[in-house]
Amino acid sequence: MKNEILKLSLGVDISKETLAVCLCRLTARLAKEFEDPFEVSNNLPGFKKLVKWLLKNASSPEDIFIVMESTGIYHEALVYHLYMEGFPVSVMQSGRVKRYAQSLDQRSKTDALDSRMLAMLGCERELALWSPPDPILRQLKGLSRERSFLLKEKQIERNRLHALEHSVYKSKRELKRYGQRLKLIEKQLIEIEKEMEILVKNDPQMHQRIKHLESIPGISFKSAATVVGETLGFTGFTNAKQLTSYAGFDVVLKESGAYKGKTRISKKGNKHIRSALYMPAMSAIQWNPTLRKFYERVQPTKVKPMIALVAVERKLLVLMYSLWKNKIDYDPEHEQKKTARTEVLAAQDRSNLALTTS
Fold first, then answer.
1. What is the distance between the alpha carbons of residues 3 and 332, in angstroms, rounded to a whole number?
2. Residues 291, 220: contact at Cβ < 8 Å?
3. What are φ and ψ of residue 149, in 5° steps?
4. To bridge 11 with a disulfide, which of 35, 115, 135, 136 should be the other Cys (CB 3.0-4.6 Å)?
């Protein structure tokens, strides 16, 4: 009984070239026993070597729970391979992993220690299992990322062209090449946006749900498709708080004794979502009466108007999440109806209270 193993958890710390792994056993005495960490290459031969080693420590893949941290794209090949081999896998957001690590008495930071920490996390917590995203959503995310990078490149080339045009020393051939590069970027942006539209239209259900998001004043197809692609259809989020944290809209406040720090958003999240919502927020405070009132109420209390605009971006993201989950169009009178229902319920409570006290 003393040596009975309650749970096996493997922590994987991922880098571009290598995988640092550590196996943890949770015994019936609730003690944690660790194998010495080791490394394998972050490629198919390394994956096969890891799977072979894991099957020596368990009778079946289902007996080993694997925990890793989301690291851009470098974890994707591994997580797909392990999923196809039948291992239960959890991919943690970096913010949650960092908060767990801070709770431990661990001052050093190495790949081996990080893999040990992830293995411990898998033994202690019940984590959500990873499953492959919808291929269409994965493709939509890839297109939206490509579009985002091209928009950045377009702005860089414009700035360089503007600087060259105002320079004393300039070459007509150099100006021509800048113009050609900008035309190429514009052409590719149009191609990508058409691909996004075709991809969405070929899936009637997704097309209808994105239409729900477009019903919000200020939200265009490109903005809606970018947010849906970056969140993979809002999968993995059980509430709006998780979503805003993923996008980096979660509020951070630092105070200690007499020191009172400024309240700000963490920005430790998906920058593509924040970028995609900037222009819709600018449009919303002009054309959406509800969000305009919200902006006007928040703005005077802030030092910078930008803070109020970020609050509108956050509000838009939560609104999009709600419409997507409920499969409904935007109702501009929702707040008024909600207030009216609250007033009716309050009046009923006052009436019932009067009857019981009389």
1. 62
2. no
3. -65, -40
4. 115
The CATH number of the domain covering residues in 5-124:
3.30.420.10
Q: β-strands 255-256, 89-92: how paired?
A: unpaired
How high is the mean pLDDT of the chain?
A: 86
pLDDT digits (tens, 9 = 90+) for 51-62: 999 988 888 888
Please give the full DSSP string across 228-287, using - where no structure is assigned.
HHHTTTTTT-SSHHHHHHHTT--EE--EETTEEPPPEE---S-HHHHHHHHHHHHHHHHH
Domain definitions of the chain by residue range? 5-124
Question: Are 249 and 317 contacting, i.e. CB atoms less than 8 angstroms apart?
Answer: yes
Please give the single-letter amino acid code of residue 10.
L
- Give per-residue pLDDT as tens, 312-353: 999 999 999 999 999 999 987 766 666 566 666 666 666 666
CA distance linking residue 53 with residue 55, whole number of Å: 6
Q: Which amino acid is at 313?
A: E
**CA neighbor of 116 nearest in space, from 32, 3, 6, 28:** 32
Report whether 250 contacts 311 (CB < 8 A).
Answer: no
3-class DSSP state of 39: strand
